[in-house]
Every structure is written in structure tokens, then in C-alpha cells.
């Protein structure tokens, strides 16, 4: 095992140094005025920054012996990913004509990587996570560019596919990792890890209205609709948790995932919804599909399909994102149909085709490229973690238990 640590020590620092040199060179040739003018308002950026770093950092602390790695590796991929995201978006959307990506947009893009990390939590080493971050950010921006260029999706809405892309990219990557042995009990939680994880959930919940509104012009509508959806999803989570438990007690795992479902479900439509009751219905449906989906997936689909999802990103982000995409299509039909009084069905069908096409393109790109990325991450060059060392801080950190 000493040779593993030696190779690991010789690879990680040099990769990080190389990436930082690349970022420094690119930023050196960027106009100072372009950077400062592209920066969004600090309060909005601060909210998203807190949500991504603090919220998701604690949200991933679900494993009893993987707390150090969950928070620290999340922080590492965020600070590297934001720099990478700024440059990648500049390339795909502006072709180096000017530097126009704000840090808020970079943080929103990196959320896809954080979500994907939840699926491979405890299995991927930092070297693999860094490579996954770089590949996923490039592919995610390619997907956004396709949606923007060919399917005419509004620029800001292309970023709202982040939950859908991150969840299914992460699941596809996780499918290529070896399964942990049946007797391994390190992939379970404790009351302490559950407490920290729900603390992260509360952080994400509080700042989610800023996340959904930071890139839109209709900020008031986005904030209010997101809050209503989150509130109803949280109440529904408590209700369903008691109803689906054999002894009628609340389950922390339900609150860990379902209270966020409303924010994910409404992410596509938050700026355009004109009645709060619509947002509340979406929040309720999001929480329902999360809790019921967790039961069905964990008992019926995950074992035969061998889906490995450490943090439950499929039913926390994937299923609500699918529901939100379908809801966006339905609301588009109702809104445009009412406005046109169903006289111009060809134009309405054209809009539906673009919405459905963007959804299908995003999820298929995530699955295909995630599968390929998973194969790449499991080559010997990237220092594969032995299965017996999954979910263990002691493999990376100086710890005492």
C-alpha cells in the first residue's frame, strides 16, 4: 500500500499545480475591465457561494467515516471547478471575443459536479474527482451550447439543466465503479453524520431562492415562487415521512432529500409562473416523487440494475428535475395555447418540440458521456481506490477514531 500513497502524493500536487498555471496564463491575458464588469451583485453571489460550499459540503456528510473527505474534496472541486467553468463558458459561448462569465454563473455550473460527486461519494479519490470535474464541466457547457444554438433555449435557462445533468452524469459514472462488498458497513450513516447532513440541507434550502433567481431578470417572481415550492415540499416531506414509516416516526433520510425537491422541480419555471398556487403544487409533487421514488428505486430498480448511488442524488435531484422539465412543457402548452387560443397549433408544437428536445438532449448527453467518463476514471493511471478502502477517511487523512 505504500507504493499507492507514493504514487498518489506524486500525482495530485502536480496536477493541481498544472491546472493553476493554465488558469493563471488565461486570466493574465484577460482584460481587467471585462472581469470586473461581468461580476454580478455581491449579495446574490454570496448566497450562491454559501449554498454551494457550506450547504453541499455538509449535505454530502452522510457517511460515518467519510466526513473529512466529503467536505474537503467538495471544497477542492468547487474552487478548481469555478475557475475552469469561467474559461470553458467563455470559449463555448463567446469564442474568446470577450470575457463575460460572472462567478455566479461559474458556481451554478459547478453545482452539476457537486451533485455528481454524491453518486460516487466514498469511491472516487481526489485525482479521479478532479478529472471528472474537468470533463463534466466541458461536456455540460457543450450540452448548454447545443441547447442554446440549435434548440433556442434562453441562455439563463440552459444553466437550470444543472440538476438533471449532474444527477444522471453522476449515476452513469458510478455504474462503472466496482460494487462494495456486502459485509462492508462503512457506507452507512450515524446520528452525528445525519445531523451534519441535514444541517447542509437546511443551508441549501435557505439559499435556494437566490440560486434560482441569480441569473434571471424576473427576480421577484423567481424568489417568491421558489420559496413557496420549497415550503410546501418541506411540509409534504414531514407528512409523507410519517405516513411511509412502519412506526409512524419521521425519518431523517426523507428530510435530507425531499425538502429540497420543490427547489429542483421549479428551477425551470420559477421566473415565469404568475400564480403562487402553481409553484406550491410543483413543490408538493416534487416531494412526493422524491420519497416514493426513493422507496421504489432502492427496493425495485437499484439492485437488478446495479445502480450505485451513495448520496441518493437520483431521487433527490434527478427525479424532481425530470418532473420540473415535464412541468415546464405543460405550462408552456397552457400559457401559449391560451394566448393563441389554439389557433396556431403548428407554432405551439414547435415550442414543445424544442423543450422536449432540450430535455432529451441533456439527459442523453449526461448518460453517454458519464458512462465514458466512468470508464476513463477506472484506468490504472488514475490510482483506483481498492474496494476495501471505500468510504474511509483514513485512506486520505490523518485521523483518529
From TrEMBL:
<protein>
    <submittedName>
        <fullName>RHL protein</fullName>
    </submittedName>
</protein>
<feature type="transmembrane region" description="Helical">
    <location>
        <begin position="277"/>
        <end position="298"/>
    </location>
</feature>
<keyword id="KW-0812">Transmembrane</keyword>
<dbReference type="Pfam" id="PF00909">
    <property type="entry name" value="Ammonium_transp"/>
</dbReference>
<feature type="transmembrane region" description="Helical">
    <location>
        <begin position="12"/>
        <end position="32"/>
    </location>
</feature>
<feature type="transmembrane region" description="Helical">
    <location>
        <begin position="195"/>
        <end position="211"/>
    </location>
</feature>
<feature type="transmembrane region" description="Helical">
    <location>
        <begin position="223"/>
        <end position="243"/>
    </location>
</feature>
<feature type="transmembrane region" description="Helical">
    <location>
        <begin position="310"/>
        <end position="331"/>
    </location>
</feature>
<feature type="transmembrane region" description="Helical">
    <location>
        <begin position="351"/>
        <end position="379"/>
    </location>
</feature>
<feature type="transmembrane region" description="Helical">
    <location>
        <begin position="44"/>
        <end position="63"/>
    </location>
</feature>
<feature type="transmembrane region" description="Helical">
    <location>
        <begin position="75"/>
        <end position="96"/>
    </location>
</feature>
<dbReference type="GO" id="GO:0008519">
    <property type="term" value="F:ammonium channel activity"/>
</dbReference>
<comment type="similarity">
    <text>Belongs to the ammonium transporter (TC 2.A.49) family. Rh subfamily.</text>
</comment>
<dbReference type="InterPro" id="IPR029020">
    <property type="entry name" value="Ammonium/urea_transptr"/>
</dbReference>
<feature type="transmembrane region" description="Helical">
    <location>
        <begin position="129"/>
        <end position="147"/>
    </location>
</feature>
<dbReference type="GO" id="GO:0097272">
    <property type="term" value="P:ammonium homeostasis"/>
</dbReference>
<feature type="transmembrane region" description="Helical">
    <location>
        <begin position="153"/>
        <end position="174"/>
    </location>
</feature>
<dbReference type="InterPro" id="IPR024041">
    <property type="entry name" value="NH4_transpt_AmtB-like_dom"/>
</dbReference>
<keyword id="KW-1133">Transmembrane helix</keyword>
<dbReference type="InterPro" id="IPR002229">
    <property type="entry name" value="RhesusRHD"/>
</dbReference>
<keyword id="KW-0472">Membrane</keyword>
<feature type="domain" description="Ammonium transporter AmtB-like">
    <location>
        <begin position="41"/>
        <end position="381"/>
    </location>
</feature>
<dbReference type="GO" id="GO:0005886">
    <property type="term" value="C:plasma membrane"/>
</dbReference>
